[in-house]
Amino acid sequence: MARLTLVLFDIDGTLMRTEGAGRAAMARTAQQLFGRPDLFDALSFAGSVDLDILHRAFSAAGIAPTPRRIGRFRERYVRNLRRLLPVHPAETCPGVVALLDHLAGRVSLGLQTGNFEAGAQAKLQRVGLWTPFGAEGGVPIGGFGGLARDRSELVPLALQRARRRGRLPDRVVVVGDTPADILASRAGMARLGEGAPALRTLAVETGWAAPGALEASRPDLHVADLEQGWNEVLDLILGE
């Protein structure tokens, strides 16, 4: 039986960079709803999950993080994000387009990202990367930051979507730019117990984490970027 590999990519700092559009949209939304553009100033977004970011910021400001408030904020945030993305510089990270083209038809592609699903779509559309992930009815395989506060739940959630599509991967490769991507995916796979797919992790230095911090998370492969590490990346994913 042919081996099926599911490759799950983080977005910010891994597939693309938006030069702060997400944080700017969060601040604008906080200003509009609460008069608090500084609501997120003390929080790092790297490796975080949008739902958890909102819970932590609201609680620190004395705002009860009720489902209604969270839902209202999310809807307004995505609208603001779509307005701000066209005026913020955005680019794909080195090697990303070539890698996605090379993997098409060879593996299943998906996402494991702290972004809300609609926010993930808006960002990827900004740089023309949505089609490889959302072409099938517009519903991508993935674990998203609106589904769980704990990042370790994202890989299991992505596998659930893959299985609903009739795909039963026996290997999962997680690609990310922060230690949280590596550590959380490992913890999430451990939750699945016996019978879980084999996990491989790939860390790239195209985000904001220090190389030493990435190395300390002990990924299976650590490269400067997907272009410079091309051969090693293909070997990890495809066995080439």
Supply database-style keywords.
Rossmann fold; 6-stranded parallel β-sheet; two-stranded antiparallel sheet; alpha/beta; 240 residues; globular; 10 helices; 2 domains; 43% helix
Can you offer a commentary on this structure?
- The structure is a single chain.
- This protein is of the alpha/beta class and 240 residues long.
- It has two domains: 5-18 and 90-238, HAD superfamily/HAD-like (Rossmann fold); 21-87.
- The protein has ten helices and eight strands.
- Strands 5-4-1-6-7-8 form a six-stranded parallel beta sheet, with helices on both faces. Strands 2-3 form a two-stranded antiparallel ribbon.
- The protein is globular and about 55 Å long.
Mean pLDDT across the residues is: 94
CATH H-level superfamily title of the largest domain: HAD superfamily/HAD-like
What proportion strand?
5-15%
Helix content: 40-55%
Shape: globular
Strand tally: 8
